[in-house]
Write a structure and sequence with these properties.
36% strand; four-stranded antiparallel beta sheet; 4 strands; DUF503 domain-containing protein; single chain; 92 residues; alpha+beta
Length: 92
């Protein structure tokens, strides 16, 4: 089972691309280390207060895969500098 999440976020306090990338890099690196998921910035690379992050995991059963993605999404929500606005899940 493969589950992917496309997560749109706002980073309100970022005043430059450098500040945005610092926040995004920290979130993505920690998410990869803690949840063993693939993470990438998918869209809005040149906007300094908006981003779309892709998160993908694979596993042998639906419950464990969905649990990992939900934990990763909750992890994104735990950062006060990021607001998750829209999330799209897709099974493959």
């Amino acid at each position: 089972m493969i589950l992917s999440a496309e997560v749109e976020c706002f980073i309100y306090e970022a005043q430059s691309l450098k500040e945005k990338r610092s926040v995004i890099k920290r979130v993505m690196t920690r998410m990869q280390n803690e949840f063993n998921v693939a993470v990438s910035e998918l869209d809005h690379q040149n906007l300094w207060q908006r981003t779309t992050i892709g998160v993908v995991t694979i596993g042998s059963d639906r419950m464990s895969v969905e649990r990992v993605i939900q934990q990763a999404l909750a992890f994104i929500d735990s950062f006060p500098e990021i607001e998750r606005t829209e999330t799209t899940l897709e099974w493959s």
